[in-house]
Protein: Lipoprotein
Organism: Candidatus Accumulibacter aalborgensis
Amino acid sequence: MKKIAALFAALSVAGCITVADAGALVDISVLDRSSGQQLEVYRHRGRLYVAGAPGNRYAVILRNKSAGRLLTVLSVDGINALSGQTAATSQSGYVLSPAQSAEISGWRKSMDEVAAFYFTSVADSYAGRTDRPQNVGVIGVAVYREAEPVAMPEVAMQPRARGSLDAAEGASSRAEAKAAAPAQDAAVSKKAETRLGTGHGERISAPTQYTDFRRASDSPSEVVTLYYDSHANLLAQGIIPRPRPQPNPAPNPFPAGFTPDPPR
């Protein structure tokens, strides 16, 4: 059981309606910040999907359904949205209080700002621009329950200072990705170019603060996954059902009254 310094999810969303109903502990949904609409979730072969509009800003909405605090490690396109590292479940994340909802609108840049999430091409995505395009099109949340308080006193770990994403940390993440990925995966295929990824947009205000959290277990209690792509791609893959054509109405033998004159 590890005691870590995590970020408290300070941005709450009142009255958020979660359509995914994805996890036992945490629900996840996507808000299109450009239109103000929550994206419809489609279920297909055991997976959940949303259709994003290229260029639109979006936010991931997390809701704690449990009666205790939870640690949520948020991954977007295989990258930790808090640190910018290639995502692993053991990393830091956002802590949600019981019944709390939080809006995560971008890549964490400091304790006060994030770089906005927006739907874009693979090449323009943050993953693509940092040589990690292999996992674009997926949002994941690893959820940890909090351990029971320990009776004996213990020394709290001091949270590591964070400002903007450290240049060395970013370079390290890119080096890890290059070492792990085969050389042939570095080039993005034409087919991949048609898919959606998540961009690194303008800075927006998103204040947060540190809090201590001790995981009840080394493995997450659950992992919730939500896939995304363009409406056209999801329609072509059969994930979004095509609308059924309306049958032509049967001819009416008595549509009117008296016989009109024909046109001259």
Summary: Helices lie at 126-129, 167-180, 190-193, 231-236. The two ends are 91 Å apart (CA to CA).
